[in-house]
Amino acid sequence: MPTESQKTYTPKSKTPEQALASLMRQCARAERCSGDALRLMRRWGVADVEARKILERLIRERFIDDSRYAAAFVREKSRLGGWGSRKIAAALRAKSVASDVIDEALQQLSPEDDSARLEELLRKKAARTTARDAYDLKVKLIRFGASRGFSLEKVIDLASQIANAEED
After folding, report:
1. Buried b vs exposed e over 40-55: b needs ≥16 C-beta within 10 Å?
2. Alpha carbons 134 and 22: distance in angstroms, whole number
3. Residue 135 in contact with residue 167, Cβ under 8 Å?
4. Domain residue ranges of the chain, discontinuous segments joined by +
5. pLDDT band at 9 (very low <50, low <70, confident <90, very high)
């Protein structure tokens, strides 16, 4: 008999009714997108036809709204996570959110706020980064800014300014 630490987790299968009730509870607590709901239902063993019906009902009753989800996701990841628009868009695409919904949600980000957020992140990173010279610092800042999903052109420009200022 396996011990507690040796047991492997297998997701419990659910009937369509149980899946609907569970998703309604989850959606009432936190935003979910249709892609998340479909993945959960697949994991629970709900047939695709039934899953589509459940998803349609959740959308009709406004438990799930991809536009609302995308807008909340953009706000959270940009303000709290310090993500740029490219990384946010990629994460939403990975969650199967439609491109037009992503584009609409990204409209709430102003280019000025995006630039200010990037500058703040790069300045903080520069302050805590050890570099051999200005070029090394610039490379590290570019890598960091690009990994956060900001425009490579903006990252290179700002990293150059910061590295040159640090050198002086």
Report:
1. bbeebebeeeebeebb
2. 54
3. no
4. 16-60, 66-106, 111-167
5. very low
CB atoms under 10 Å from CB of 107, counted, come to 10
Instruction: List C-alpha distances in Å: 65 to 3, 76, 111, 122.
Output: 43, 17, 26, 34
Q: How far is CA 82 from the centre of its chain?
A: 11
Phi, psi of 65 (to 5 degrees): -145, 105
Residue pLDDT, tens place only, 33-89: 999 999 999 999 999 999 999 999 999 999 999 999 999 999 999 989 999 999 999
Nearest to 133 by CA among 168, 93, 106, 87: 168
CA distance 93 to 104: 13
Helix pair angle (48-60, 34-43), 10° resolution: 140
The whole-number pLDDT of residue 91 equals 97
What is the signed CA dihedral for 163, 164, 167, 168, rounded to 10 degrees? -150
User: Two tokens at 49?
Assistant: 């036809």
